[in-house]
Amino acid sequence: DMLDSFEFAKLLKDKTQISFFIGGAYGLGDNLRGEMDKLVSLSRLTFAHKIAKLVLYEQIFRALCINANHPYHK
Fold first, then answer.
1. pTM of the model
2. CA of 10: how far to CAs of 5, 29, 46, 50, in Å?
3. I need a labelling partner for 36 at 20 to 30 A (CA). Which of 2, 28, 42, 62 fits?
4. C-alpha–C-alpha distance, residues 32 and 29, integer Å
5. What's phi and psi for 39, nearest 5 deg?
């Protein structure tokens, strides 16, 4: 799924634990994908793992700000 920041924030709302997995250039294996509750795409582009982690961290921070009614997400 391709989510906007508000939809992503809803995924994190009221969660005490959540796990993120970053796939390789060809995505994640079918076995792992089948065990996930939700599969989210950061982009249709292919990123180096370090860039993907940075984008994910920023989106997590943005989601936490949205959920806390902080104005960062603007």
1. 0.83
2. 9, 26, 25, 25
3. 62
4. 5
5. -115, 120
For residue 2, list its beta bridge partners: 41
How many angstroms separate the CA atoms of 51 and 72, rounded?
Answer: 21
Report domain extents, the chain. Answer: 5-73
pLDDT digits (tens, 9 = 90+) for 20-62: 999 887 878 889 888 888 889 898 888 889 999 999 999 999 9
DSSP annotation string for 15-58: -S-------BTTB--HHHHHT-S---BS-SS---HHHHHHHHHH
Q: Which two tokens stand for residue 60?
A: 């997590």
CA distances from 12 to 30, 61, 64 (A): 24, 10, 8
